[in-house]
Amino acid sequence: MKKVSIIFILFSLCMANADVSPQILLMEDSFTQSKRSVQRLPEYFPSRTSIAEVGDVRSILGTAGKNIWVGSNGNTIAVMYGPPSAPYDPNQPFDGVWICCSTDRGAYWNNYGAVSTLLPLRRIYPGVDGYEDTHGYLCYFTWQENPLGYILNLGCVIVDYVPIPPHFPIPPTILPNDVCPWMLCPAVNPDDNMHAMITAWSYLLDGNRANYCWHTTNGGNTWSDPIQVTPPVDQTLGGAGHFRWGTGGYGFFTYHDSLGGVEYPYYVESTDYGYTWSVPATLPAITSTQFWWHEFDCEVINDKPFAVHNDLDASGVMQLFYPDPDDPGSPGAWNWTALDIDSVGSETFAYQGTTWTTTVIQYPSVAFNPDFDAILVSYKASYEITPPPPGWTDGNYLAGIVSIDSGRTWYPTRPLSGPLLQTVGGPIETAHRLVTTNDTTYCYSTWTDADYGFIGNQYFELGIVQTIDASIFGPGYGIEEYNNDPVSIPLNLHVFPTVVCNACCVSFNMPKQGEGSLKLFDATGRLVKTIYTGYLKSGFHNLDVTTSELPNGVYMIVLDSETSQETAKIIKMH
């Protein structure tokens, strides 16, 4: 059988306290910062940003891998995309694979690429997942390299990232023992930032239609041989699945297969960090007619699995499966609850003289805030409001249902986006993490208006999670309990002067005492020197920084605290 190589690259986002080793340099000829302009679209919502032009809907499509990740500070975001091939070929629509990151909550984006080894490409099916600690982020970016419809490579780049630009170490290459993997799903172990797992479906060529996984326990330097996760899956259903970690070795993997000739949502579990897997079991589907490979998601919330599957048949409903909050059971013996999301989200609601009519459509995602017990199931939906607010347009939006009591009760949300500019059913994905800042809970999503064989744009959407009945959940909810939330507290970093010769003064405010660091990087992202690292008292600080020894050029000063990170630019001129 044909050997297939997989390249993995680990991306470390905003690791301001991590020295960049001088040997970690690769792909300098093939990897350049994008010159694409990234613009706000204020004519819709200030939360929307156009990330890039993409060659096809498959720049996002495929929920095996989630194509958006957000760090716990709420500022650091990462996505992937494929720009249009040139000249454009609808059968090979992508001119490589690009990585796109924001460190200011999506206001502006840095585009890096191309990181693929083959181009043009037919499919990408990307996935992103990361691990965060106090000082930095480690992200795995995976994609499928498919020039002519048959898989040749799967890729994932290992990059050390300080503000700009990233540096590449030499990517390890492994042979997945002929399983011909498709649709990777990366997941980082929350117990161990060096342990990650990638799942994929063995499909086409010499594939056997089973799902497999690979492990790294050293941050991507080496990878295990493939471990079988599921038996062979009915290929007409698109058998790739989605995997999420819990803690203490628990993992949950959900996918679709047939049962007695009928499509059904399945799952398997692991309690030993993904090295052995349970016998496949079915989820208690409410309707089961037409489950599709891009119509599901899962997450492990407080070590309990949540899985959402959408039955696209006219008689089907979107369904959420999770253990009974009051009597959950345990791995292998969960007491499942099956929630008909349509029954909650497709209704007419009245609030303060306004009538809201909402209809659930497709593209479900599961997100949660681990510090706030807020669980969101997002999806594409249609809205009609009477009377309409100024500027309101009835149509399709990102929407959802939210629970703030572990799933005992659910409430429909107001729109989580501006109007979706989709003439077709372009996919939407919401990051697994919700972030609460200053008593407002945000969800982070990416979507495209591209179609199969047609160029479009990929967008980022920052949505505010608020129930239609605003008294239940929304901005300002829980002020007394969360007014000391450490997420994204401003540090007020300032540098004077910004054009320097021999020295400059750096001032900042520490909202509370704790560990911190102040470091200087050059324009390539190389650490030039550590100005200070250690304990900092709360309050304002002023530090003199000597710059006389620096060559002329642009430099970034990065302030890192236990809760936030800020950067400032200086220009050295003799």
TrEMBL record:
InterPro entries: Secre_tail, Sialidase_sf. NCBIfam families: Por_Secre_tail. Keywords: Signal. Residues 1-18 form the signal peptide. CDD domains: Sialidase_non-viral (cd15482). The lineage of its organism: Bacteria, Bacteria division TA06. This is Secretion system C-terminal sorting domain-containing protein.
